[in-house]
Write a structure and sequence with these properties.
The chain has a four-stranded parallel beta sheet with strand order 1-2-3-4, with helices on both faces. It is α/β, with parallel strands linked by helices and about 220 residues long. The longest helix is centred in the last third of the chain and has 13 residues. It is about 35% helix and about 10% strand.
């Protein structure tokens, strides 16, 4: 549902678009469980690709992880990977490690909790560009990630890497380029990638659906 505005515009431009709701989140919240991990989400992405070829995979935020693993496992079907406010993390990276230390400690203490309604942090950088209706939509429909998915490390099996594009939103493009040049561990795999800037918050599919769709259309046609 978060991608409806982008998907509608891309279809109008002639693209076949298949937004994926991962198991254990959103409308599939009832599928959360001990096995709802990164491997399961990778299978969700691969299932959406089916037998198609020359597919462009688009991953936003955590979605960059299952997209990276899917591209690695079916390289013959993937023409390009686009990371939206995300990036190709190194093997061994975990989503939980992206959290601040206090939040990470809280999540790792005690028994894993099931996915549940999610409250977006009151962060002006992350929420930039969202109007009251968009924030209300996030609060009413968004959910947390399944615990198993955020603690499983990303792993590649050696598939031929697809070309990579990255759309920077909540971080200025110049800062991303500097991090790539410095070979920062979080950005090192973006060396040689096509980088684009879309200044807004962390949810460009809600804050800038027209501009995001235009960028994805441009990338697909290059």
């Amino acid at each position: 549902w978060a991608w409806d505005g982008v998907a509608e515009r891309l279809r109008a431009a002639g693209h076949v678009v298949r937004p994926v709701t991962l198991a254990g989140v959103g409308d599939r919240l009832d599928e959360d469980g001990p096995g709802t991990d990164l491997d399961r989400h990778t299978r969700d992405v691969i299932g959406a690709v089916g037998d198609d070829r020359d597919v462009i995979l688009v991953g936003h935020s955590y979605g960059g992880m299952p997209v990276a693993m899917a591209a690695d496992r079916i390289p013959e079907r993937v023409a390009r990977v686009v990371y939206v406010d995300s990036g190709p993390l190194a093997d061994g990276a975990r989503q939980i490690d992206m959290s601040d230390p206090e939040e990470k400690s809280a999540m790792e203490i005690g028994a894993p909790v099931p996915s549940r309604p999610w409250e977006p942090a009151d962060d002006p950088v992350l929420l930039a560009g969202l109007d009251a209706d968009a924030i209300a939509l996030l609060k009413s429909r968004a959910t947390t990630h399944p615990y198993a998915s955020i603690v499983q490390p990303l792993s590649r099996v050696g598939g031929k890497p697809a070309p990579v594009s990255m759309i920077a939103c909540s971080m200025p493009l110049d800062q991303v380029r500097a991090m790539v040049a410095q070979q920062h561990p979080m950005f090192a795999l973006l060396a040689g990638a096509d980088l684009y800037g879309l200044p807004t918050g962390h949810w460009p599919m809600l804050s800038e659906p027209a501009r995001l769709a235009a960028l994805l259309d441009e990338i697909a046609r290059d």
